[in-house]
Design brief:
By secondary structure, the chain is α/β, with parallel strands linked by helices. The protein has a domain at 83-106 and 221-397: Rossmann fold. The chain has 20 helices and 13 strands. It has helices at 15-21, 40-44, 51-63, 69-79, 107-122, 138-147, 166-173, 188-199, 202-207, 218-221, 226-234, 252-262, 279-286, 310-316, 321-327, 335-349, 355-370, 388-395, 403-410, 422-431; strands at residues 3-5, 30-32, 86-88, 93-97, 129-134, 153-160, 179-185, 209-212, 243-247, 269-274, 328-332, 376-380, 416-419. It has a six-stranded mixed sheet with strand order 3-4-12-9-10-11, with helices on both faces. The chain has a five-stranded parallel sheet with strand order 8-5-6-7-13, sandwiched between helices. Helix 6 (138-147) links the parallel strand 5 and strand 6 (153-160). It is globular and about 60 Å long. The relative contact order is 0.14. The structure holds pyridoxal-5'-phosphate. Residues 105, 107, 137-138, 215, 247-253, 301-302, 356, 381-382 line the site of pyridoxal-5'-phosphate.
């Protein structure tokens, strides 16, 4: 498989080079030259395949010969070695719990896959690789955990000071060793901007071998398709495919879902559920894409004012708005609606959502109201305990904290505070 840049000014590369580069040199995003089609036989008999087999079948055409079969199977098996259950919440709404991995959010899947692929690729490199990543909350922990103690890789995480939850902050600031946390006085968009600028600095890139672990990296983006297939495997109404609601920020997750759909996965409709950061919901109304400054909300991992991966969704539909509209709807949900959903679903169904899942749940409910014969799945992207500061006051109860998280909360935070200035980031990278 070859990958081209969405800006069309860089050479095509294979999976290995796309993973190592992160972003294309022309600042575009890598996109697969063809979208593979899965056989009908595979889809119809999906319930007879193990998750490991499904994941391997899905990713194999994208990796092609960049990683030998045995190694790729091992990477896939390690990536998905936790539960991903589909839980019935009401007659019409099911929750795909993506939070049973080590950092309690769906980003574990992409981060675990990418870190293992990169770990495999750098074995043959002479230079140390520095992975740079900006996080609005959950990426940092997942990437830190995935790359912790990987030989030949340094990880530098930028996060917006005071805008991540306490559990999130501990997950990315307490590991040490090859993991470095930069606490930036600014927003997530500032962090992302700094990272982007560093990647385009030719002099610095001569000295250091830099790559990104944000969801723009194909090795983080593509494995997110796995759990859409796992959901369908557990979906009993095979003659009535699900509507799938995805809490969305940078749009990597939902873009992977749409890719899976184009490859043959039966899905009725996709819903991009956003918080007050309504760039895509507005686009779906006006066909005008207007990035804005990110607004802080209680679903902070989705506080993104210029969603990087949306361009890939347009690419899938070859920029045909009419075709996109048939497959995707998008809603913007307020913090008030998020809280009342969280509270209501807990009270009436006994099911505890996290704020991101609640955004998805409410958006799905809205869609189902207008489409009463459909049934849907909301991707529950994080464990509610990760956001206990938000959840507890809403439900008026304590959220039981798992022992592993309690231990983490007791560890000492180690971060380097910096202003949102790219020169300071460069200095830090050169000092490693
Ligand atoms: C990152 C994140 C999202 C948004 O995912 P994207 O792929 O950036 O759209 C949603 N929910 C949680 C809990 C997250 O960590």
């Amino acid at each position: 498989m070859q990958y081209y840049s969405t800006n069309h000014q860089s050479p095509k590369v294979d999976f290995k080079q796309a993973t190592i580069n992160g972003q294309a040199p022309d600042k575009g995003l890598y996109f697969p030259e063809q979208i593979p089609l899965l056989s009908k036989e595979f889809i119809e008999n999906i319930a007879n395949y193990s998750n490991e087999e499904i994941a391997y079948e899905v990713i194999k055409p994208y990796v092609s010969d960049a990683i030998p079969e045995q190694e790729l199977r091992k990477i896939v098996n390690e990536t998905i070695n936790f539960n991903i259950p589909l839980i019935k919440v009401t007659d019409a709404i099911f929750s795909l719990e993506l939070y049973h991995g080590p950092t309690l959010a769906f980003k574990d899947i992409g981060a675990r896959f990418m870190s293992r692929c990169l770990g495999y690729f750098v074995k043959n490199l002479s230079k140390k690789v520095t992975v740079l990543v900006a996080t609005s909350g959950d990426t940092g922990g997942a990437v830190a955990n995935g790359f912790f103690d990987v030989d030949g890789v340094d990880v530098v995480i930028l996060y917006p000071s005071g805008k991540v939850s306490s559990v999130q902050e501990k997950q990315l600031t307490t590991l040490g060793k090859n993991i470095h946390a930069l606490e930036v006085a600014g927003t997530f968009d500032d962090c992302q901007q700094m990272v982007k600028q560093v990647f385009t600095d030719a002099a610095l890139n001569k000295k250091l071998f830099l790559t990104s672990a944000n969801s723009i990296n194909v090795a983080r983006w593509l494995p997110q398709q796995f759990y859409y297939f796992f959901a369908y495997k557990q979906w009993l109404l095979k003659n009535n495919p699900p509507v799938i609601a995805v809490p969305s920020g940078n749009f990597g997750n939902i873009c992977a879902g749409i890719l899976a759909y184009v490859s043959g996965l039966p899905v009725k409709h996709f819903i991009a559920a956003c918080n007050a950061n309504d760039i895509v919901p507005s686009f779906m109304q006006t066909e005008k894409y207007e990035p804005k400054k990110a607004i802080a909300t209680i679903s902070n991992a989705m506080d993104v004012g210029n969603p990087s991966n949306f361009i890939r969704i347009l690419e899938i539909f070859q920029h045909q708005f009419i075709d996109l509209k048939k497959v995707l709807s998008s809603y913007s949900i307020s913090d008030e609606e998020t809280k009342s959903t969280l509270q209501k679903v807990y009270q009436t169904e006994g099911y505890l959502l996290d704020p991101h899942g609640a955004v998805g749940y409410y958006a799905l409910q809205q869609y189902l109201q207008n489409n009463p014969t459909e049934k849907g799945i909301v991707l529950e992207t994080a464990h509610p305990v990760k956001f206990y500061d938000v959840v507890e006051p809403v439900i008026g109860e304590a959220v039981p904290i798992p022992v592993t998280v309690q231990q983490q909360l007791r560890l000492e935070k180690k971060s380097t505070k910096i202003a949102a200035e790219v020169d300071l980031l460069k200095q830090f990278l050169l000092s490693l």
